Structures are given as C-alpha cells and as structure tokens.
Amino acid sequence: MTDEKSLRYTAEHEWVLVDGNTALVGITAYAAEKLGDVVFVDLPKVGSTVAQGKVVGEIESTKSVGELFAPVNGTVLDANDAVVASPELVNSDPFGAGWLIKVEFTELPPLLSYDEYTKLTGE
After folding, report:
1. What is the 3-state secondary structure (H, E, C) of the chain?
2. Residue 81: what pLDDT?
3. Where are the domains of the chain?
4. Does 1 have pLDDT greater than 70?
5. What is the pLDDT of residues 63-87, one digit of tens each?
6. Phi, psi (5° rounding) for residue 28?
7. How many Å apart are CA 28 and CA 15, to the nearest integer?
8. pLDDT of residue 4
9. Pick from 19, 29, 36, 84: which is nearest to 57 by CA?
10. Was domain 4-105 assigned CATH 2.30.30.240?
11. Is the pTM of this model over 0.85?
C-alpha cells in the first residue's frame, strides 16, 4: 500500500508515483468507488507510446465504462497483468496491487498534490 499523501494526482482521478524517470499509474480510491465493481480492464501494450491527457485504456464496471488517461508523455514499461486477470483489484487495492501501468517519461508535467486532489473531489 502506497502512502496516498506522497503521490501526485490528475484531475481525471489517476494517481502517479514518481520514481526517477518512471511513473507508476493507477486510479484513485475515489474513482474506483464512483465506478463501482470493476469487471474489465484494458491496458496499453508494453512498448507503446502514450501522450499526456490521451486515452490509453478502459475500465469497465457494472455501472459504467471509464477511460484511463496517460498522466505523462512516454513509453509503457509495464502493464499490470494481474489487474487484467482480476479487475476487482482496482476496487480492493487501488493504491497497491491495483496499479495499472508504469511509464518512462522525459518530462514530468504539473500534477496535483494530495491536498489539491482532495479539494478537487471534496473528500
């Protein structure tokens, strides 16, 4: 489990854990709760290029379909196969085993702090 206060966030409800020039990405507990029970996750292929703000995947729940947006420009280093096989990990452990992709980036764009994100969601 990652400390939520040490993460960065997007207005689209992704969290980002920055380690050097890599970003581990997932959706927030707030987003997972709003989606409801996740039943399907589609992630980009390893080696694919992603662009900040562009759709890179899909998260389907019993209530709706949500899109996963890239928080950075870069190359996908890893995609969480465990989440594809067991989509419910997004609900049960969004900040741990429910991570989605790892991206290598060259420049980190401005992202929200924990306080800014909680203000955005009214949490």
Report:
1. CCCHHHCEECCCCEEEEEECCEEEEEECHHHHHHHCCEEEEECCCCCCEECCCCEEEEEEECCCEEEEECCCCEEEEEECHHHHHCCCHHHHCCCCCCCCEEEEECCCCCCECHHHHHHHHCC
2. 96
3. 4-105
4. no
5. 899 999 999 999 999 999 999 999 9
6. -75, 165
7. 6
8. 85
9. 84
10. no
11. yes
